[in-house]
Design brief:
The protein is of the alpha/beta class and 432 residues long. The chain is built from 18 helices and 21 strands. The chain has two domains: 262 residues, Rossmann fold (3-Layer(aba) Sandwich), CATH 3.40.50; 153 residues, 2-enoyl-CoA Hydratase, Chain A, domain 1. Strand 1 and strand 2 form a beta hairpin. Helix 1 packs parallel to helix 2. The radius of gyration is 21 Å and the shape is globular.
């Protein structure tokens, strides 16, 4: 297919854009766009930190990193690639090689002069404080939902370089509305304070309300405010990927705010599907890029809006064997709706708010009161390699994955079957 734009077009004062919601960009057009975009920037003699996603996002990183390396060679005095893990598991050498496009153990041969680091979110020595956002300002940004200050802590690799370039896709997101842009700083390479704080703010709004919301949501406003404290010059190469592939619909380069906004508008057209009526059941088949339920839960977030009251979401992932190795507390907390925690806040306020947020996101909408207890709007069923006792103790329903009859479910008019769940959002027609 032809690109919707044959040349880079201006999208406001802060970014240029190629592509659109129809068709895909050729690899050469992407390379040319990266080269043209970086050629226009003052990068000679500068140190550059490139922040990229981990393996949980669809993105042609080998192509993009090769183009970036070519555009920076002979100009930047130092190039560091920082993997934006958030609080995901670190990537080992074999995973990094596949992800970034070099032979295992041969980084220097493919990308001479480039250094690659995982974001070590578990290591306090890797962080630096940029200051704080006051309680009063948090109240303004959060729409009055939270009133306490938050320290802005970031991986020091970002501030140790003159320029920070975010490279990553934009998708509908359960915490912020649409991912990408400054989100690769916060929570991508941030300290636990901002991560927990921003995720809990999203949980207070609720995943089903914020996911796929265009424009500046309260969480996006908080993230942008934190990013404004970064002393390095910030740039972004934002992308709209064809879900589940290495193809790109569009790419935008400029400030993180402007490049993100351009791609979020396109993502809203390419990554959101609309149904005319709710469905009774969804079978979400979780891709192997998601290795635990902490990440695989995206297969629930993206479909919750179209499930009828009393319906069911089956997360089918025989390859997933644990809830979260990185967040063992989730096994103890279990999965509960937002009101379960708010109604017993003294009991839960000292837990990591990020864990509480993930819990509410996977359990979905519901109610709680001290008399009738908790009632979820839908049933969440795990058909995974996680033991039944663990699943039920975490307050979720269990189904032996061997008992999942995909053909029968595909033939059922009341069931939606998604072969590659986790990136495309489903909404009811007429909703935002």
């Amino acid at each position: 297919m032809r690109n919707t734009l044959s040349a880079a077009g201006e999208v406001g004062s802060g970014a240029t854009l190629i592509g659109g919601s129809q068709g895909v960009l050729t690899p050469q057009r992407i390379r040319d766009f990266v080269a043209e975009s970086l050629a226009a920037q003052d990068l000679d003699g500068r140190s550059v930190c490139v922040i990229v996603p981990d393996g949980t996002r669809s993105c042609p990183l080998p192509l993009l990193l090769s183009a970036l390396h070519g555009a920076l060679s002979g100009r930047a005095v130092q190039v560091t690639v920082l993997i934006a893990l958030g609080t995901h598991a670190a990537m080992d050498e074999a995973q990094l090689a596949r992800h970034l496009g070099y032979a295992e153990g041969a980084l220097a041969a493919t990308y001479p002069g480039m250094t690659i680091r995982n974001h070590e979110w578990w290591n306090p020595d890797t962080f630096v404080s940029l200051g704080s956002i006051s309680a009063e300002r948090v109240g303004e940004l959060s729409g009055g939902r939270l009133h306490r200050s938050v320290e802005v802590v970031l991986n020091r690799a970002v501030v140790d370089h003159d320029v920070a370039i975010v490279v990553g896709p934009v998708f509908p997101h359960e915490v912020v509305g649409f991912s990408g842009g400054n989100k690769y700083f916060f929570p991508g390479v941030a300290g636990p304070e901002v991560i927990d704080f921003s995720h809990w703010l999203g949980a207070l709004i609720s995943s089903v309300e914020i996911i796929g919301t265009r424009g500046i949501t309260p969480v996006r406003a908080l993230i942008d405010e934190a990013a404004s404290l970064i002393p390095s010059r910030r740039l972004a190469l934002c992308l709209v990927a064809e879900s589940g592939t290495d193809a790109l619909h569009a790419a935008s380069f400029g400030t993180p705010e402007a490049a993100w906004a351009a791609c979020a508008d396109i993502s809203a057209l390419t990554h959101v599907r609309y149904l005319d009526a709710p469905v009774a059941r969804v079978l979400s088949i979780i891709p192997t890029r998601y290795q635990d339920m902490w990440t695989g839960a995206k297969g629930f977030y993206k479909v919750e809006p179209v499930v009828a009251d009393g319906g069911q979401v089956i997360l089918y992932a025989p390859h997933i064997n644990e809830l979260s190795a990185m967040h063992p507390a989730i096994t103890e907390i279990g999965y509960h709706c937002r009101d379960y925690f708010l109604g017993q806040w003294d009991r839960f306020k000292d837990h990591h708010w990020g864990d509480l947020a993930h819990s509410t996101h996977l359990r979905g909408a519901g109610t709680w009161d001290p008399v009738d207890g908790e009632r979820g709007r839908v049933t969440v069923t795990l058909a995974t390699g996680i033991p039944e006792a663990v699943v039920r103790a975490a307050n979720l329903d269990y189904l032996d994955p061997a008992c999942v009859d995909r053909a029968a479910l595909e033939a059922d008019p009341d069931t939606l079957v998604l072969p590659q769940a986790g990136e495309v959002l489903f909404r009811l027609r007429g909703e935002q």
